[in-house]
Amino acid sequence: MSNRITSLFHTKYPIIQAGMVWNSGWRLASESSNSGILGLIGAGSMYPEVLREHIQKCKKATNKPFGVNVPMLYPNLQEIMDIIVEEGVKIVFTSAGNPKTWTSWLKERRITVVHVVSSVKFALKAQEAGVDAIVAEGFEAGGHNGRDETTTLALIPMVKEQIQIPIIAAGGIATGSAMLATMVLGADGVQIGSRFVASHESSAHPAFKDVVVNAKEGDTQLTLKELAPVRLIKNSFYNQVQDLYQKSPTKEQLKELLGRARAKRGMFEGDLEEGELEIGQISGLIHNIKPVAKIVEDIIMEFEMAKKNVLNL
Q1: By the 8 A CB rule, do 38 and 65 touch?
Q2: Residue 295's pLDDT is what?
Q3: What pTM did the predictor assign?
Q4: Which terminus, N or C, of the chain has the lesser number of Cβ atoms within 10 Å?
Q5: In this structure, are residues 292 and 32 in contact, taking their beta carbons and an 8 Å threshold?
Q6: Class of 4-203+285-311 per CATH?
Q7: Which residues contact 147 (CB under 8 A, 6 or more apart)?
């Protein structure tokens, strides 16, 4: 399977394993890359020296390309970027910020840059900034999300109409048939997050993985738009957020309730009631925890089967 994404990243398949906070450590990234897709380390939940350790371990565990996802709403960005350069990482995905801030700096150092967007407006800004590709992420996605609530099905063709660089679809994709659907709509590849949370190699707490595979339709909701929109499993913390919204809270009150390390508490430490449990809507279609290699194998098999089924229509 060869196209603009496999050529850009030198992978076998046009699939990216999302660099998710508290889920995407070196084990998940290296095994994803070893399975023929692009693995990403999620820098958002790592102090700079922890990130360095994960990069070094990933380099020992795979000889295939891998990258680092850097959410730009976190501190220590210069230190993080310096470590990425020092350790020889050649692919960086940026998100949650202005692509102009780091794209030129990274490309001057011969690093391939991809930026995550949730609208046509920001896709155009990313293209103008000189990124090599974009991830167009729909409202269905887990974690930090777009405020406009544009779904993947609507977003991909609208972005395709406006930009020339490669497009990676994200949000609501966990199967080969969904991968084919987004590529028919104009995507060159897909980024998958939630399906890889429920993998053996994910660094998420086992209790959180169990919540993901037991999730049903309607169990997640996008909230906290005033801070950074995030899709959460409905639990005690989520209910506290909704109760606070009944009082027309200020940003400061929302920040006070959120506190610090809420996502770590939920996804990494397994506090299923008071923690922040970030996951996509597609969790309702994820029913088991499997090795990364098996997940990739199943997605590619489903993709090829879906293509044959379409041809038979």
Answers
A1: yes
A2: 98
A3: 0.96
A4: C
A5: yes
A6: alpha beta
A7: 118, 225, 229
36, 16 contact by CB (below 8 A):
no
pLDDT value of position 30: 98
17 phi, psi to nearest 5 deg: -85, 120
Q: List all residues 6 or more positions away from 208 whose beta carbon is below 8 Å from its beta carbon.
A: 197, 266, 267, 268, 270, 272, 277
Give the tokens for residue 95: 């998100």
CA 179, chain centre distance (Å): 15
Asked if 197 contacts 204 with a C-beta cutoff of 8 angstroms, the reply is yes
Q: Which sequence spans correspond to the domains of the chain? A: 4-203+285-311, 214-282
pLDDT of residue 144: 73
Q: So what's the pLDDT on residue 311?
A: 86
> What are the mean pLDDT values of the chain's consecutive 10-residue runs (313 residues total)?
96 98 97 98 95 98 98 91 98 94 97 97 97 97 84 97 98 98 98 98 98 97 91 97 96 94 96 97 97 98 95 83
Residue type, 16: I
Q: Compute the distance between CA of residue 63 and CA of residue 54 in angstroms, rounded to an integer.
A: 15
